Amino acid sequence: MELNKPLLDQKITEAQCGNQAAYNYLLNSHWNLVYNFQLARTQDEFKAEEITIQTFSKAFNQLHTYNSSYQFGTWLITISKNLQIDLFRKEQSRQRHLEKDNQLNKVIDENPTAEDALITEQNLSELQTLIKKLKPHYQEMINLRYFQEMSYKEMAQKLDEPLGNVKVKLLRARRLLSDSIKKNQ
């Protein structure tokens, strides 16, 4: 897409010497090439314009590295493509960090709300009423295991009973309590 190679080479040389008019020529003659390339890649006019501006800024700062055996437009497109890839990677990294931050902000508050506490209290009250309807030795089994949080071994020692008997009695107590709960629902 190089229109006039000798004129372009002259403007590049002039720009390398600091000639502002030469910079304007290079910008104006290649703006649409770079902008349209980026617009096709990003599908976003704002991003395409920003990357195009960055492309010319970087190209003009590195103009001394331009090799005239390559087309100037191709050199600009290469710079533009690399800038867009870098931008994309930064956006992906930023997105991952935001997602991690959002996950950290989603820490579950395990403290019960006032409603939860009330419901728990009501359920516990109903459960205790049903437990009191069990025979005393079954009440004791439920109390030791679930309210005092004793292990089977500790329960066997406290009740002075074999471990197998404790397990069977607790199983029976849970079964009776479960049946009682189902009847009251």
Automatic annotation (TrEMBL):
Domain RNA polymerase sigma-70 region: 27-93
Keywords: Sigma factor, Transcription, Transcription regulation
Domain of life: Bacteria
GO molecular function annotation: DNA binding; sigma factor activity
One BP term from GO: DNA-templated transcription initiation
Keyword Protease: no
SUPFAM superfamilies, sorted: Sigma2 domain of RNA polymerase sigma factors (SSF88946), Sigma3 and sigma4 domains of RNA polymerase sigma factors (SSF88659)
Domain RNA polymerase sigma factor 70 region 4 type positions: 126-177
Pfam families according to UniProt: Sigma70_r2, Sigma70_r4_2
Family, per entry: Belongs to the sigma-70 factor family. ECF subfamily.
Identification of the protein by name: RNA polymerase subunit sigma-70
Species this chain originates from: Leeuwenhoekiella nanhaiensis
